[in-house]
Each structure stands twice: as structure tokens, then as C-alpha cells.
Give the backbone structure.
Amino acid sequence: MLTKIKTPDDLKDLSSQELQELSFEVRRRIIDVTSQSGGHVAPSLGAVDLAIAMLKVFDPPTDSIVWDVGHQSYAYKILTGRNDDFDTLRQYNGVSGFNKISESEYDAFGVGHSSTSISAALGIAYAKRILEEKGFSIAVIGDGALTGGMAFEALNHGGDSNLNKLLVILNDNEMSISKNVGGLQKYMSNVLVSKSYNRLKRKVWSMTESLPERFKHRFIKGTRKLEESVINMIVPNIIFEDLGYKYIGPVDGHDIPHLIKIFTSIKTHMDGPVFLHLVTKKGKGFPLAEQHPDKYHGVGPFCKQNGIVPKNGNVSWSDVFGNKLCELAEKNDKIVAITAAMASGTGLKEFAEKYPTRFVDVGIAEQHAVTFAGGLASKGLKPFVAIYSTFMQRAVDQVIHDLALQKLPVVLCMDRAGLVGNDGPTHHGVFDLSLFSAIPDLVVMAPSTATELELMLEFANDYQDGPVAIRYPRGTAPRNGVSEPILLGKSVITNQGSKVAIIGIGDGYTIGKDLREQSGNTCTLIDARFAKPLDLELLNSLVAEYETVVTIETNALSGGFGSSVSDHLINTGVKVYSYGIPDRFITHGDTNILMEEIGLTSDQIYNDLKTKGIIPEKIC
């Protein structure tokens, strides 16, 4: 069945039995591919039936469908012309793990960060009205993404928009279907979307036009209260009605025939913005993912028979962070750990178990997390905020206004800095040094080894003069390396040489170390440690002894560490050559391949410097 589906139009004539068969085949396809490539398994398995029902009724790209984050959209990708290439999921030059306008005409909007879908869909709906274009604008958002404040800002705006073809679908995989989705609820959902009910409602409203003004307002208010009271007997939350949406649900998100009936009714005769509440099971169709949805939310390659994810036995940067923070918290009872729905990913699971009263998961709300931490710090506590670098971008204003301006001693721990590989440009953490180095009174550090990260966490724990940001990459943390104590704004010369000084920051130091070996071990090698404040004393000392300074970072070259070094040495006669992330978005794929593509390996840097005449063969 699946092999016959080349475009969404191929679903239109399928029977209910054939759609059920298709659902099974799509789930099997997702499991087969993700077991080899990794990816967001459980969320996408839970949204298969939703995707099939939507494509049965609606007509993308005329109807614009925006999937929040994209974690749930694998079935949609498979059914919109990408099944033949789905084996390349998350691979270099293959199908992206997220939705991209450039990948398919069926992807109405590019996604990757949470809670953006309703804003985008609302913008598309407004544009359709202005341009007099046909079609619905549909946002599919998960219950986790609905914790983001941006989603509520958009809901508030959309409910007041009077847009007839705006549909917000909440894919809720936390509520119990047996509790909230029964025969009475199904009946009520059918009534709310029925043509007769909505026609009667319109007639009642039109009748009020003939009433005296003083009675008209009371009548409308009373009628709405009656309607809401009836609905509220079954519906757990009427907030969406109050915001201006016609609320439908909760509805079983795995009942394809019923979903098709609901979608058809919405498409044919419902007026105004609609909020459809679906209840689904994360990991549906894969028992291991159903039992452990968090484990299979975002996962590497796994054995589809037993679900085992191979482990390499190495200690990750996240583990080093989590273990050290537990150690510090044992001695300092003022430490509070905060994350934005990333407890496991940031290494805080053990901390949460050991110190439950000092651990806070704020949901997908990075801005709130930072300002919340500021509030804690203002009362003398020591907050450590652990968020991926790419998501910390969303809280830049809060870091400036609520932390740095007030010199509050909050520690920002930015995981997944640099290129993260298969998740691609929405998740690469390559802007943090550029963004945060521009902020006054914010200390910015990057460790080159696990030992150095532990030392930086100790330093940050003791530092009380303002906020501190520490960025570290994804993957295995090397243990051996620099172990000198951390001194504010001080770098470490690890290998003495002449003529050429190589300064690496974070994992850029590791590249610099390999570069030094390739070039004869006679260059000076420096572990920068601090992006801010810069070690100006060391930089000034280089002027008299060195002709060339080479900087290496896994951050954007524009406004990054190398740019800061170059700006300081601009009038000294010292030539500065900086290597980092070029001024473009880097695609998804294996990190080693991506580093090769952008010329950020020690071999490529060595050859470039040799071509420039900076480093002769094996001699500096």
C-alpha cells in the first residue's frame, strides 16, 4: 500500500480498511529507518493516524500545514513524496529530521525550535486573506510545545482574528484516552462540528439583531454561558473558548474514521478559528516506545527487536556537568538546577532524583527559565540553568536585561555548543560566543576537557559578581588535559614555541593541538578558556614575540572569539587568521563530514596555512 502513495492525492480514494493498513505500514517504515539513523521515534509514531486523516481531508500545499518542532512529522514526510528517500533521514544530503520549505512544497514553514507553529500558521492565514488565496492554515502543536509562552501569545492573537480557516490541532499525548475520550465525548464532538448545530447557532445570533440593545447583550451572554456550561460538563478546559476558538475535543487521535469526520466537518461548514484537541499515545505501534516514550523521544540508532541503543562506554559532556553539579550541590545547599524540558538531555536526571526540591523543570520556556533563575539569585540562591546552546538563543534579552544588567550570579550551562550533527541547522549551537560575548558583565567560558569543565563549574559556583555562561559540545568529553586552576579572564599556555601562536577555545583547542603536532610541534599552543573577558595581558605579550596568531573555535566567525582577538590586535602588526563556522547555515549530517565541508579540521587548517606561507612543511 505505502509504495503506491507518491502524493497526498493518492490517499483520497482509500477505504477505511486501506487507511488502517497504510497506518501500520507507515509505522513500520518509521521504525525500520530510525533504528538505523536515529531520530524522534515516539513522537512521530504517535502522530501517524493524525497525518493520514489530515491528508485524506485537506489539500496541501493549498491548505498550509505547519508542524511544531517537527518531532511528529515523519509520517507526513513519508506521505508527501519523500518515502523513496526516507532511508536517508538525518544523513548528509538526505531528508531532514525537521520540516524545511526548501525540501518540499508540502512543508509550509521551516521548524526546529518549539512553540512557533501557531504564530506561523496565523501569519500564513492572514497572508491568505490579504492575497485572497484559498485554503486552510493548520498548526499541529504538541502538549509539550504548548508550555512555551510564544504559543499562548499566538493563541491570544489568533482567537481575536476572525479568521474562518485557521485550525489549531493540539496533539496531546499525556492525557488518558480511556478517561476523557468515551462515547459521550465522541457524541459531543460530533455535535459541535455538525452542520445543523452551527447553522442553528448562526440563526440564533442573527435573531438577536432585532432585539433592543439593552436585551441583546444579556441574551448573547446568557446563551454563550449555557453553551459553555454544557460543554464544560465534559471538556476539562474551556480556556480556548474564552480565547475565541471553537473548542472540539478531546478526540481519540488514533480513530482515523472519526478524525476524518471531524476534519470534514471543520472544512465544510465551521466558522471562525477552531481548536481541535486530540489525545494520542506516544510511541503508538512500537511497544518499547509506548512503555518508555522519553527514552525514544530522540534516540540514536537502536535494535528494533529489543530496543537496545548501543553504548560506547564514554562519558559525555552532559554527564560530566550533571555529576559535578551533584557534587557541588552536596556542599552548597543554595544551588538550584533549572532546565527547560531537557532534564535527561542536559545530564540533570540524577540531580533531580537526589535534590528534588532544588530541581525545577519549567517546560519549554527558556525565557522564563532565565528570568526565574534571576529571581532565585536575587534572594541569595545559586541557580545553574542547563539549556542547549541553540535554545538559549531564545533568551538573549532575558540574559541581558534580567541577569547581566542586575549582575545576578546565575550560571548558564549551554550544552550542545558547536555543530551537533544530524539534527542540522536548527540545532547547531554556533552563535553563543558571538551573542553572549557582546553582553557587559557576563563572563563567558568554554572548556577543552572534562577536567576543565569541572574546574569552571567550581569557579562559577564561587563567582558572585554577575552571571557566568559556560558552553560545551555534544559527545564524549576528553579527560586528559589542562588542570590549572581557573582565574578570571586568564588563558593557559600549554606548549611553548615561536613565531606562530595557536589559540583554541573549547573544542577548538583540541583542533589546535592536532594542528600543532602536524606542523612540527614548534608553535605555541594556548587554551583560551575565556571568550570574555579576553586575556588582554597574554595577547599583548604575543605582540613582541609572534608574527602570526591563529584562532580556532566551533562558533560563528562573525562576532566570535577570533573576531575579538583580531579586533584587539588590529594595529599591532600581528597577523590574525581565524577558523570557525562560516557565515552560512550548516546542513545536517555526520559531524565529521560537516567539519570537512566547512574546512574546520586540523588537516585543512594546516594545508591552508601552508598555502599562505604561514607554516612551512613540518616547521613553524
Remarks:
- Residues 438 and 559 are 8 Å apart (CA to CA).
- The two ends are 64 Å apart (CA to CA).
- The domain at 493-611 is CATH 3.40.50.920 (Rossmann fold).
- Residues 16-37 form the longest helix (22 residues).
